[in-house]
Amino acid sequence: MVFILGIESSCDDTSAAISRNDVILSNITANQDIHRNFGGVVPELASRAHQQNIIPVIETALKTANISKKDISAVAFTKGPGLLGSLLVGISFAKAFALGAGIPILEVDHLQAHVLAHFINDGSPTWSPPGFPFLCLTVSGGHTQIVRVNDFFDMEIIGQTIDDAAGEAFDKSAKLMNMGYPGGPLIDQYAKEGNPDAFRFAKPNIPGLDFSFSGLKTSILYFLRDKLKEDKEFIENNRNDLCASVQSTIVSILIQKLLSASDMTGIKEIAIAGGVSANSSLRDELMNARDLYQWKVFIPKLEYSTDNAAMIAITGYLKYIRKDFGSQESTPYARSNF
Ligand code: KG4
Ligand code: ZN
Q1: What does the DSSP 8-state code read for residue 203?
Q2: Which of 92, 184, 191, 304 could bridge 117 with an S-S bond, Cβ 3.0-4.6 Å?
């Protein structure tokens, strides 16, 4: 039996999870509401909130899993990419805990972990993970990538955004419509009552498997500017339709590129990961594509879509059984380097 304590602190969520082999026993996250007042994550405040949250979150994770500190085999933590001050809180805690307990540490890449969340065993008799090679669309607040996953730790980025990430496209669109932060879940919610064909926004024309979302933001900005000249209440009067149309534009850009990636590689096992994979329309469209193109699709549970420590624990477990241990000299990185 291998018990891993996983710690995630790369952005504004402090999360801790306990795994027993490939099963998650607990997954506890403290969200930092403080950033809502600023319309985005304030790095300095995030580090401080991690410092306050980390002990109680870990204690709750241990208690929920009914595990004592002495049972932990190793500590896995997010090494990057992310906010350096935030990452340092998790790394420092992991090092100190492991040193005190005389156990190894495991360095985890946040983006690999989003992908490897698909290997969390949900305990049901029908559970089966993706088979290699598979494609994973990782869509979060900071990243948009199509990854060809050849093996657990052999991943190749075959397409990525050249400007904004898909999550940023949701968040920035929401900001233009005077909505709160983060905007993605709010757009998803309002879109449920709206018509996705009500308004048309420009889609980028980027060759290959790369993405671009900055043009969409400009298209929405000019569209709203013109409409607001005619009707000052245009946004309030059309919020549902606006959200549904913006969401459908973003989702169709993502699905189109996934289709091209599947065509180009011949791979039909398709997974999605990251915060935007919580989006209900993206999930629905992926199921439609599954039926149309005979794909085998993998959609993470909501709690494993947005940032969480369960994905850090499972990645840690996969490294532990390979004896791929980290060192006390480990330092964080801000940008992805896998
Ligand atoms: O993976 P994640 O939790 O954190 C990062 O690593 O960035 O992703 C956060 C992003 C935010 O941009 C948020 O607006 C978006 O995921 N998001 C959503 C939904 N839930 C979260 N976007 C669209 N629909 C959702 N339901
Ligand atoms: Zn993430």
Answers
A1: P
A2: 304
Report which of 125, 120, 152 is spatially closest to residue 136, judged by C-alpha positions. 152
> Is there an atom of ligand 1 within 6 Å of 308 CB?
no
What are residue 208's phi and psi, to 5 degrees?
70, -150
Cα of 171 vs centre of ligand 1, distance in Å, is: 8
Residue 87's H or E segment, with its range, is helix 84-101
Which helix (H) or strand (E) covers residue 75, if one does? strand 74-80
307 CB near ligand 1 (under 6 Å)? yes
Closest atom, ligand 1, to C-alpha of 274: 1
- The answer, yes or no, to whether any atom of ligand 1 lies below 6 A from the CB of 182, is yes
Return the amino acid letter for 95: K
Residue 144's contacts (CB-CB under 8 Å, 6 or more residues apart) are 138, 160, 161, 165, 166, 167, 211, 213, 254
Among 36, 140, 164, 283, say which to mutate for ligand 1: greatest number of ligand atoms within 8 Å of CB. Answer: 140
**Protein residue with least CA distance to atom 20, ligand 1:** 185
Ligand 1 closest atom vs CA 183: 14
Q: Is the CB of 184 under 6 A from ligand 1?
A: yes
